């Protein structure tokens, strides 16, 4: 079963609570929260107070994607605010194993994210330690960008590594995911689909989620037959 993680980056921030309720009612599994610092990526978004203010109003898994430099300084604060899963960028961590261990010690699930140009070889030794690997399918920083198709082969290679070492981490893809691109990533092994603009700029949120799930599921049916 493929999980859907709406990214609130493309939500109407003046109606954030209402929009989170809409995706939750539509049956998604995760809420993807993009944190940007204006240094690691050229954009600034939200911090722990926004996570804390949403927490009492949602039972979704809060999937916090830290696109920030020096993530170690902020891990504890995001977990205290209500993050269930904290994902850090490999490119922002000098001591990745230490950072992942810290996330887990503080009681959250630990994810690692790779930019499109970052090779899998860089994270292979740490794969047994992580709960999730996020492959960026756009260059991070903004919603609404075009999906980078070349990442599909990297996704297949990651899936092969997971099978080879009998590991259990989830594989999430992020950036440019919609009804047209979802089938290829699901076929290649993605289990969690982050989708921002395709959900929050659609005329109807529930319909957009239904259509995305149908696109992902149709691929799985194809594989079985
Ligand atoms: O991490 C991100 C950008 O850095 C976002 O999660 C991602 O871009 C989702 O937005 P969209 O589905 O519109 O591409
Ligand atoms: Fe993201």
From TrEMBL:
One of its GO terms (molecular function) is D-ribulose-phosphate 3-epimerase activity. GO terms for cellular component: cytoplasm. It comes from the Bacteria. It holds the Pfam family Ribul_P_3_epim. This is Ribulose-phosphate 3-epimerase. The active site is at residues 34, 174. Catalyzes the reversible epimerization of D-ribulose 5-phosphate to D-xylulose 5-phosphate. Its EC number is 5.1.3.1. Its cofactor is Fe(2+); Co(2+); Mn(2+); a divalent metal cation. Pathway: Carbohydrate degradation. A divalent metal cation binds at residues 32, 34, 65, 174. It is an enzyme of class 5 (isomerase). InterPro entries: Aldolase_TIM, Ribul_P_3_epim, Ribul_P_3_epim-like, RibuloseP-bd_barrel. Belongs to the ribulose-phosphate 3-epimerase family. GO terms for biological process: pentose catabolic process; pentose-phosphate shunt. Binds 1 divalent metal cation per subunit. It comes from Desulforamulus profundi. It catalyses: D-ribulose 5-phosphate = D-xylulose 5-phosphate. Keywords: Carbohydrate metabolism, Cobalt, Isomerase, Manganese, Metal-binding, Zinc. Substrate binds at residues 7, 65, 141-144, 174-176, 196-197.
């Amino acid at each position: 079963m493929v999980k859907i993680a709406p990214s609130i980056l493309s939500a109407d921030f003046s109606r954030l609570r209402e929009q989170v309720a809409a995706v939750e009612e539509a049956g998604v599994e995760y809420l993807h929260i993009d944190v940007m610092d204006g240094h690691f990526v050229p954009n600034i978004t939200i911090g722990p107070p926004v996570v804390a203010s949403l927490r009492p109003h949602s039972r979704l898994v809060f999937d916090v994607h830290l696109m920030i430099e020096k993530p170690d300084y902020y891990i504890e604060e995001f977990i205290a605010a209500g993050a269930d899963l904290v994902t850090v960028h490999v490119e922002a961590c000098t001591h990745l194993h230490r950072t992942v261990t810290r996330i887990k010690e503080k009681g959250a699930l630990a994810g690692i994210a790779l930019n499109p140009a970052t090779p899998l070889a860089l994270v292979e030794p740490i794969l047994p330690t992580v709960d999730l690997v996020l492959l960026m399918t756009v260059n991070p920083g903004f919603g609404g960008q075009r999906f980078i198709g070349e990442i599909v082969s990297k996704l297949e290679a990651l899936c092969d590594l997971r099978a080879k070492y009998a590991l259990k981490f989830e594989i999430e893809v992020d950036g440019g995911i919609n009804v047209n691109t979802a089938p290829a990533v699901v076929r290649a092994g993605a289990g969690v689909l982050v989708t921002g603009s395709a959900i929050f700029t659609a005329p109807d949120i529930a319909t957009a989620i239904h259509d995305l799930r149908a696109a992902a599921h149709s691929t799985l049916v194809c594989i079985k037959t």
